[in-house]
Amino acid sequence: MSKYNHFARDLDDAFKAARNEYTTAYNAVESARQAANEAGADALKKQIATLQLQAAEETMREESARIWSEFDAKAAELRRALEKEVQASNLADPSAIDGNAVELMKTGVLTTDDYFNFAVKYDGNATMLRLIGYYAREAAAAAEDRKDKAALTVLAQDCANGTGKTLKAFDELLTAANYCSGRGGSGNRRNTPGVTLSMGEWWERLTADAVRNF
């Protein structure tokens, strides 16, 4: 758990609140549907029940748009606040430099795995992450293997601002939220309400450890 854990917990709370609202709207539709099915042969009762079902479905569509729009706005707000806080703690600090690690990177003998291991080891150390990003970029330029070049380039970009895995981990939670709201990784897919409700049940199983260890 890092000092940024409250951002993950806030996102967790926001998703659960949105899911609860969505479930309430869904249950209202299902109750209206059941009433329509049980209206029997009475034409007036059946007509009233049908109108009530149509109204519940319309409310469901409106609520779905509102619920996930508000969740997305809250998630974006948390993402901006986290980025601002991370950047504020990323000022270069000479005392945070591990001279032995820097000298080792200067030699040019490190493998791609070595750079990634360094990024994990010094996660939270903004100064070292910047240095890792700098030398990873140099290693990428010199790499002959295309996979190594691509991997080192990505690592250099991740480390460039000293953010390490923090923002990346939060973005992975956002992607999970999109999937668990039935909207796919990009957040643009539109599934049926039943599918969305079913996907929402996966949230804890997919993210509990990530939220706890963030």
Written account of the structure:
By secondary structure, the protein is mainly alpha-helical. 76% of the residues lie in helices and 0% in strands. It contains nine helices and no strands. The mean pLDDT is 90.
The portion of residues assigned to helices is over 70%
Strand content: under 5%
Structural class call reads: mainly alpha
Shape: elongated
Largest sheet: none
Order of helices and strands: HHHHHHHHH
Distance between the termini: 5 Å
- Rg measurement, Å: 24 Å
The count of helical stretches stands at 9
Report the average pLDDT across residues: 90
Question: Which regions are unreliable across 5 or more consecutive residues at pLDDT < 50?
Answer: none
**Annotation, overall tally of beta strands:** 0
List keywords for this structure.
9 helices, mainly alpha, 214 residues
What's a concise summary of this model?
This protein is mainly alpha-helical.
Task: Outline the fold blueprint.
Blueprint: H1 5-37, H2 43-88, H3 99-107, H4 112-121, H5 126-142, H6 146-159, H7 166-180, H8 193-200, H9 203-213
